[in-house]
């Protein structure tokens, strides 16, 4: 039995169509021969989520989004997911809608909860949550900053308005004059700085010699200090201190009347006796001068000594 060319052509075309369908499903991550479970989740907003987006568990793809539509008689969004039939996590698992990247769109990650008595079945609805994306987090951080910037700009406008009211024509003229004077002063300072640099360059050798002299003087002072330190100044000072302490003790004993010197200084009797003796000595010398014969006798014939008679004053 011969097969006609038409039948052969039909078989080839049907095989190509079947191969195309299989390849297309394979590239989308689906398998024609693998059975799936249909699960649902309800969200308020699914911006960025499209049919065909992946459904994963801990980063492992376990299905895809098959349909996105409104929940009947509401504005909420019903998302239909086709997942592998062999998944055995609990109905209390959470379908988390998250952002895959800045330009990667969105996907759903199932956070599984395990309970052998409550395994998911096709047609079950999972709890839904939305994880804030990077763009939303940035917007949350930028919003307070934007409010502060607007407030700052408003304050700046008020400040500039106040400054404009304060800076009248005369004030602006004075300010301009002040700035011109400041510019002149700056130029003069630059000239002075250049002159100072020029003077330093011209007298570099003298400056170096001066610093050398200062260094030599410092070394000489150090050597003098070392010599003084080696001369045992501290020992001399301690000896001098002991001597002063001894003198202080002597002076204290003299002031208190102790010892011969203390009695001579503090006792008036010696002064009085010396005064009386001086007076009597003065009288003796006066009498000796006026009547020398009373004290010196010289006679060849042995005259008797005359008795002393006091002279009348």
Protein model, in words:
This protein has 313 residues and is of the alpha/beta class. The chain has four domains: 1-33; 34-137, no CATH class; 178-229; 232-293, no CATH class. Helix content is 55%, strand content 15%. The chain has seven helices and seven strands. Strands 1-4-3-2-6-5-7 form a seven-stranded mixed sheet, with no helix packed on it. Strand 2 and strand 3 (60-70) form a beta hairpin. The longest helix has 34 residues, at 169-202. The chain is elongated, with a radius of gyration of 63 Å. The mean pLDDT is 80.
Topology:
Layout lengths: L4 H23 L8 E8 L10 E4 L2 E11 L6 E8 L9 E6 L6 E6 L15 E4 L3 H33 L2 H34 L1 H27 L2 H23 L3 H8 L1 H23 L23
Widest sheet, order of strands:
1-4-3-2-6-5-7
Number of strands: 7
> Major β-sheet, in short?
7 strands, mixed
Q: Mean pLDDT, nearest integer? A: 80
- Give me the number of helical elements: 7
Query: What is the gyration radius calculated from CA atoms?
Result: 63 Å
Our estimate of the beta-strand percent is: 15-25%
Briefly note the structural class of the backbone.
alpha/beta
Order of helices and strands: HEEEEEEEHHHHHH
- End-to-end separation: 203 Å
Taken from the alpha-carbon principal axes, the silhouette is elongated
What is the helix fraction of residues, given as a range?
40-55%
Q: What number of structural domains do the residues give?
A: 4
């Amino acid at each position: 039995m011969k097969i006609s060319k038409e039948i052969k052509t039909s078989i080839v075309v049907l095989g190509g169509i079947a191969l195309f369908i299989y390849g297309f499903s394979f590239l989308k991550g689906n398998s024609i021969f693998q059975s799936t479970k249909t699960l649902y989740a309800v969200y308020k907003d699914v911006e960025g989520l499209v049919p065909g987006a992946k459904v994963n568990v801990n980063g492992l793809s376990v299905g895809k989004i098959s349909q996105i539509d409104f929940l009947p008689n509401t504005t909420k969004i019903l998302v239909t997911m086709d997942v592998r039939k062999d998944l055995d996590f609990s109905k209390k698992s959470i379908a988390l809608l998250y952002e895959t990247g800045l330009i990667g769109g969105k996907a759903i990650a199932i956070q599984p909860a395990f309970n052998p008595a409550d395994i998911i079945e096709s047609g079950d609805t999972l709890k839904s949550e939305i994880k804030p994306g990077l763009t939303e987090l940035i917007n949350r951080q930028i919003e307070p900053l934007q409010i502060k910037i607007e407030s700052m700009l408003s304050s700046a406008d008020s400040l500039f308005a106040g400054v404009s009211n304060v800076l009248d024509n005369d004030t602006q003229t004075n300010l301009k004059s002040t700035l011109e004077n400041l510019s002149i002063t700056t130029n003069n300072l630059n000239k002075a700085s250049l002159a100072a640099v020029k003077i330093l360059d011209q007298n570099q050798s003298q400056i170096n010699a001066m610093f050398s002299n200062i260094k030599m003087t410092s070394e000489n002072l150090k050597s003098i200090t070392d010599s003084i330190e080696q001369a045992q100044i501290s020992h001399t000072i301690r000896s001098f201190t002991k001597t002063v302490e001894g003198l202080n003790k002597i002076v204290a004993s003299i002031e208190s009347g102790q010892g011969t010197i203390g009695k001579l200084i503090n006792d008036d009797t010696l002064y009085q006796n010396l005064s009386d003796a001086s007076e009597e000595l003065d009288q003796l010398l006066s009498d000796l001068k006026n009547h020398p014969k009373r004290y010196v006798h010289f006679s060849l014939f042995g005259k008797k000594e005359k008795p002393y008679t006091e002279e009348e004053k």
